[in-house]
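Justification of resources, computational component.

The compute hours requested in this renewal are based largely on the per-chain cost of generating structure records like the one below. Each record pairs the submitted sequence with a full structure-token output. That output is archived, and it is also reused by downstream analysis tasks.
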Amino acid sequence: MNKYPVWLNLLVLTILVAGIVFALPNVYGSAPAVQVAAPNDGVVSESQLQEFVRIVGNAGVEPEAAYVKDGRAVLRFHNLNEQTVANGALRQTYERRFGIAQTLAPRLPAWVRGLGLEPMSLGLDLRGGVYVLLEVDMDSAVSKRLEAYDEDLDERLRGAGIRHRIDLENRSLTIRLASVDDVEAARDVIRQADADLIITDGADGRSLRVRMTEAQIRERENLAIEQNITTLRNRVNELGVSEPIVQRQGADRIVVQLPGVQDPTELDKILTATATLEFRLVDLTGDEPGSRRYPGRDGEASQVLKRRIVASGDQIVNAGAGFSQGQPVVNIQLDAAGGESMLETTQNNLQKPMSTVFIETHRETVTRNGVEEVRQVKTEEIINTATIRSVFKNNFQISGISQAEAHDLALLLRAGALAAPVYKVDERTIGPTLGQENIDRGFKAITIGFLAVIVFTALYYRWFGVIASIALFSNLVFIVALLSLLQASLTLPGIAGIVLTVGMAVDANVLIFERIREELVAGVTPQLAINSGYEKALSSIADANITTLIAAIVLFAFGTGPVKGFAITLSLGIITSMFTAIVGTRTIVNLVFGGRRLEKLPV
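The structure output for this chain reads:
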């Protein structure tokens, strides 16, 4: 009655051993390390790894361990001082040829690494680093699309011989026509450009108002968020930050978490920078439609530039800072479309000037009538004007900027232009000391809760309480093993979820043991009482845990950040506690008390 078949006992034992093995990497802790990544997502070779070891050795530092993981070199050190020295030596040697980042690496023996095992990932609140919450300017994203419509419709209307003027205001285009007779013809031109645009008549009878549909606006806003996330990830990778997290939060915000980064000064400038370039021909006559004057920067002369953009920042596929004739320059490489446009322009405009326009957007706070207002400021300046001496296509240089500006601009252009400006809403820097303090307090809470439960169950349920404590410890092992196997990040709220799971795991055994007591009081034999206790408590345990699991899934689906961390550990804890409290304890009870004639039970 109370005996499992051999295969089931072996299965439970196998699961327990697997849990211990997967949880084992978390025993060794972590150490300061330097991670080196090859350019263009390449793979670091063993010979390169040995070269890195030699370079840090020449700097007076001997790595505790050096190995290649996921195509990246990892050099682990004994302390932070050695890490700092090694990081400086590698950066000085390789400059920007490799991505070099300071990080923490698990202090795993070679045989554990050989099994492919990893400790669970620690969240930012435990590991330390920088948390930045960015808000995307959705109005700018929509306005940028309307500006494209503005340029397209202007060319189409001029091509149709319709005299007009287009004004961009309040997320719409107002097209003012010279004659009432042109209204229907202009409407047809607009419909040919985009049949989905909403067209309404103006009050004066000779103007049209053009708006995007709500679906088009939502699509544009989502595109801006997705492109900005991609761009921000590229920028973070350029900075050499290890294991960054860049993800969407809500309708218009992006969360950036950078483990191990302690100085956000440079980070702010790179993340929120909206710098990009536009290349425009100089309007020598000054009377071409759409032309306007752009100011010069740092002594550069102002120029009247044509409306048509020859190439823009979003067409740049690579950029690098360098020197030409002793002056800082940025070497530019365009994509196919930008290269074709540049080729056509240079072929048709030899010996004519072309300007490079530097564009940057930022927010500033102004006080009007005692009230602070935040407004967006867009700066457009000419940094270079040069005469087209020869025909070129994808590759060329721009000058007129300082060495530091060339370096930052090249980084931004390599990573890509933001689809819409982003502004910092919140920033938090968590030091490694605070992170370790959070870990210590969290595990102290788990330890105290675990010991309290053990004492209570042992005193109240005697030997059955000891069995429940063994199952409870196994439950903690399984949670850690699953977190390690899934590489889910453990956060401070996640630790709270584990503490809650410890209490909930005992509830199941309390129900079982109370049922067994009730059966014994009713005069049932001990063996039958054990069987009845587990069977009758099963439905109550399942109902309670399933409803809690549903709540945890909902928290994970709709929650963000810390809420998700809590939901993950709670969900895993519910699943493992169901196994340990029902199958685990029953296996031990069967092995200890099953198949024996018992007069009473120590419960």
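The mean pLDDT is 82. The first helix runs from residue 6 to 23.
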